[in-house]
């Protein structure tokens, strides 16, 4: 099996997940069921498929046209970033780094002085937090742009159309 064989199905499924919010708006009487399905798609299946689409775009770089590769990247990023845009990444990573460094110092030096370990934790936490805060802000901005409903709809529909056209041995590039 060649990687290009699964690209159209991946584009169609990724486009469907990216535009699922629209189905939730249209079919509002079944809101509770659709909210659970939406959470499953956007919080669990979306990031997995998004990560796979990013890998697939690299694997099919030589075989796919630039538009298909770009769609794989944009839909993949939208699906991956949608689930992490609400997580405080800088604080989480800084907390883990501060605890890890304080734990390593405790194990290597063997100090039980809580003040020393607390100061080391605070210094590492602040350094890592401030270092990552800008990156987190830019990542959340990019996620907000890609998951904005109109942009997600356009990217998702383009993915679905491109996937169908690839199955028909065509592409949006050849049409325009």
Keywords:
176 residues, mainly alpha
Can you give a write-up of this model?
- By secondary structure, the protein is mainly alpha-helical.
- It has eight helices and no strands.
- It has helices at 7-18, 20-26, 31-59, 66-84, 89-109, 114-146, 149-167, 172-175.
- Helix 1 (7-18) runs antiparallel to helix 7 (149-167).
- The longest helix is centred in the last third of the chain and has 33 residues, at 114-146.
- It is elongated and about 70 Å long.
Low-confidence stretches: none
> Mean pLDDT across all residues, rounded?
85
The total count of strands amounts to: 0
Question: H/E element string?
Answer: HHHHHHHH
């Amino acid at each position: 099996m060649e990687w290009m064989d699964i690209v159209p199905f991946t584009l169609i499924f990724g486009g469907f997940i990216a535009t699922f919010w629209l189905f939730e708006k249209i079919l509002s009487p079944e809101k509770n069921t659709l909210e659970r399905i939406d959470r499953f798609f956007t919080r669990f299946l979306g990031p997995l498929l998004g990560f796979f689409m990013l890998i697939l775009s690299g694997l099919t770089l030589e075989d796919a046209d630039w538009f298909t590769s770009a769609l794989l990247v944009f839909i993949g990023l939208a699906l991956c970033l949608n689930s992490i845009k609400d997580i405080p990444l800088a604080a989480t990573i800084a907390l883990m780094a501060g605890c890890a460094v304080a734990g390593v110092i405790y194990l290597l030096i063997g100090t039980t002085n809580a003040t020393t370990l607390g100061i080391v934790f605070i210094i590492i936490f602040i350094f890592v937090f401030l270092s990552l805060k800008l990156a987190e802000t830019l990542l959340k901005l990019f996620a907000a742009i890609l998951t904005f409903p109109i942009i997600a709809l356009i990217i998702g529909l383009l993915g679905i159309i491109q996937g169908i056209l690839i199955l028909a041995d065509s592409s949006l590039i050849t049409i325009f």
